[in-house]
Amino acid sequence: MNAHIDVGTVLRGTVCDLYSNLVTRPTGAAVRSAIEQQVSEQPRPAVTTIDFSQVNLLDFSCADEIVAKLLLRFTRDEDQSGYLTFRGIHDGHIDPIETVLERHALALVSWHEGEAELFGHVEDVERAHWDVVCDHGPVTADDVARTLRVDVVAAQVQLDLLVRRRLLMREEDRYAVPGTVRGTP
After folding, report:
1. Which CATH architecture does the domain made up of 1-121 adopt?
2. Alpha helices in 116-176, H assignment, sequence order
3. What is the CATH architecture assignment of 123-177?
4. What contacts 24+ positions apart, CB below 8 Å, involve 69-77?
5. CATH 1.10.10.10 residue ranges in the chain?
């Protein structure tokens, strides 16, 4: 099941009908609460895409309230069945988003023109494994190990870490970027 949440629509429905800027922590908290409500209503396992396309300005406090706190909630989710992806992140959003991701040691998957990108706090070895899955997935740990010329057990450990961080999905013995197994966001 894939779901799409337009942050601009949530913002206008929560704060002001003509507003397209995400500024101030209370605004971010109100929008995050509305998004959490929509996400909680989705059947699991779900890939929910949070779309920033309709947001002109995003400040650091709103990036922290919306992006970081949503990701923290999903990475603490015990059942490991829901995934967040993002789209519509433009140049004006990147600095606040990257800053809060680094501060909280988080990362996210963002879609842009059908391509997945990885933002945030990611070790080089994690990025290498994620890139193989992104470029060739869905793939097995054996496929990744062969491509990176590493031990299959080491590849499995890294891939499972990426699944726990919600940067990859696992279906049976294959790994994929969230949004590609059940259709691209």
Report:
1. 2-Layer Sandwich (3.30)
2. 124-136, 141-148, 152-164
3. Orthogonal Bundle (1.10)
4. 69/32, 70/32, 70/35, 70/36, 70/39, 71/101, 71/104, 71/106, 71/108, 71/166, 72/104, 72/106, 73/36, 74/166, 75/106, 75/164, 75/165, 75/166
5. 123-177
Give me the amino acid identity at 58: L
pTM exceeds 0.85, yes or no: yes
Tokens standing for residue 44: 């699991």
What distances in angstroms separate CA 160 from CA 83, 109, 115, 140, one per listed residue? 14, 16, 22, 11
Question: pLDDT per residue over 157-166, tens digit each?
Answer: 999 999 999 9
CA–CA dist 141, 139 (Å, integer): 7
Taking only Cα atoms into account, the Rg of the chain, rounded to an integer number of angstroms, comes to: 16
